[in-house]
Amino acid sequence: DGGITQSPKYLFRKEGQNVTLSCEQNLNHDAMYWYRQDPGQGLRLIYYSQIVNDFQKGDIAEGYSVSREKKESFPLTVTSAQKNPTAFYLCASSIGRGGSETQYFGPGTRLLVL
Amino acid sequence: GQSLEQPSEVTAVEGAIVQINCTYQTSGFYGLSWYQQHDGGAPTFLSYNGLDGLEEKGRFSSFLSRSDSYGYLLLQELQMKDSASYFCAVRDRSNDYKLSFGAGTTVTVRA
User: Fold this and answer.
1) Distance, in angstroms, between B35 CA and closest chain A CA?
2) Which of A2, A110, B90, B94 is most exposed, with minimal Cβ within 10 Å?
3) Nearest CA in chain A to B95
4) Test the B interface: residue of A32, A33, A102, A110 with most B CBs within 10 Å
5) Taking the C-alpha atoms of B62, B65, B66 and B67 in order, what is their torsion angle to the nearest 10 degrees?
6) What is the pLDDT averaged over residues A18-40?
7) DSSP 8-state code for residue A61
């Protein structure tokens, strides 16, 4: 079955620690995205990538970093510079970044600060 | 930038019809999408409108009026499983075709 997987489901971060969230897709999609969702709010774009070895900042990129070394993988690192990291993080992919193209979402990672 | 407004909550009974409105402001509007998200789950795509008019997909339909910067999602024959959050999202050609999401409407279906 094709889809997007995210791990872990829950992640705990200590003060000053960097943590990495995994996102893998086997849909053969070119574009991948990372969103942050806070309670009662919509999704806000952190980073996106349209092709391997290329990515762009979204609306709230500060305190985050990404890499896109393989088409299937788009890991997100939450750095110690992100002062309020507690949120639900969603990874998504689409065939391209065209106007009508559907984004398919993974099950999400809930990040909590200890 | 982009801004979207949608009601925060709607409650209705099983079998009823619910309309969720979405108004948007964007400089390079390209299309309006709707996503459904059950509590704690992943958003799933419901519909897309690139042109004015009504798109019908079973119990869910979506409407767009570009001249009014307005759209809505119509949920018919409501079922308990339709209790979820519904997000409108606009794609903006002046913003690299990125999706911008509204804050979501929580629909609660009562027996």
Assistant:
1) 10
2) A2
3) A58
4) A102
5) -170
6) 95
7) -
